[in-house]
UniProtKB/TrEMBL annotation:
PANTHER family: PROTOPORPHYRINOGEN OXIDASE (PTHR42923)
Keyword terms, alphabetized: Oxidoreductase
Keyword Oxidoreductase listed: yes
Organism the protein comes from: Streptomonospora salina
Xref: Pfam families: Amino_oxidase
Top EC group: oxidoreductase
Organism ancestry: Bacteria, Bacillati, Actinomycetota, Actinomycetes, Streptosporangiales
Record-given protein name: Oxygen-dependent protoporphyrinogen oxidase
Amino acid sequence: MTPAPPDIDTAVVGAGVSGLATARALDRAGRDVRVFEAADAVGGRMRTLHSDGWRIDTGAEMLPSAGYPATWALIRELGMAPADVPRVPRALALWRGGRARPHAGRPLGLVTGAGLSPRARAELMRLQLGGGEAGGPADAATLEEFAAACSPELRERFLYPLAAGFFGWRPDRSAAAPLLTHLRATGSTARWRTYRGGMDALARRLAAGLHVSTGTAVHGVAAVPGGARLTLDGGTVTARSAVLAVPAPAAVHLHPGAPDDEHAFLAACSFAPMLRVSLELERRPDAAGGMRGFATLIPAAEDDVLNVVTLDHNKHPDRAPAGRGLVSLVAAPPATAALTGADDTETAAALVGRAERYLPGLGGLVRRTRVHRFSHGLPEATPAALRARRAFHGRPARAVDYAGDWTLLRPCSEGAVASAEVAVARILAHVADHPSPAHRAPPGRTL
């Protein structure tokens, strides 16, 4: 029996950057695309809260000028001007010995020290230039195994804080290769940039030309004859093809019938949780130890609760109203785990209390506190996932596919945008191989 025509042509589940970039490219290729997003706004882990003159980036913070070719191509394609992606001044510092050491991760830091000894600086230079065989793209060693050959200083004062602060990684779980490849590709932190208007600017620009249904949760996806069936709150919808642009654990839950060559990789793609507290302040806080830039990494040897302190009002002037301040506190992985069951008030008190060491009097300046929790913060890129991805990438094109930084084991917006290119090529190959009657709109349903 010939299956009934699908209700819609292409469904994309998730309105983060990977889902929106996938939807836009499919739309430009002539597909009729519908995007379903459970949250009330687009952006995913690049969402920004816009409130009373504050622009609070809840997840991703910046993008480099180098090493993000797919992202920059999309920025240009969307007609965004250089002023829309301004540079972040004094982007990264490293806390050591009671001071914020500036110029971390940039050539000037290798000259001034950036809190590292000459030996550690030389080691860091070799890593950034690709010296040594370990840490290559095919190397499945954990960061802990790789770092055993590094000096304790470089390991504890730079590599581990960087992995924890920006990827949420534990060194004993995550592979070294993705982190080192990312560092080598993106180069100096002097070239870090952000989006004017908030990190969700790219997502909002993408969504403007698409049919996006926010507040619409998808509870299940199954491959069926002629395409895919999606289960929503109001019933089911069939699609000729579907892309799950959600974290791997969510994809496993949504698509339990995934074939073995997909399931093994999906199951191996674990995620690190992330916990962040953002503080709207009456004024810009006083800073201890010369903390004057944007982000300061804090090694576990200095603080086992806070991993990163960001002065978001220094990232770009539009993040806080004139004269006000905006600070975010990122919890270290052990503290994130310890605060999993705590309520927002307890969580904020724990982080703000610890932050007084770096920003004296901080607690007395707080107007409003926002706690951001991501149970699926960033893909861990474990050795098991590295081993399983070959079969995943070699699978045939199917009606149900995936997008997201985890598919490339590159936990950043570049991974998300580049994954969209892969997903689009696979979906177009599938529909070319499986001609279908024209889709029909389901009666009585607005998509």
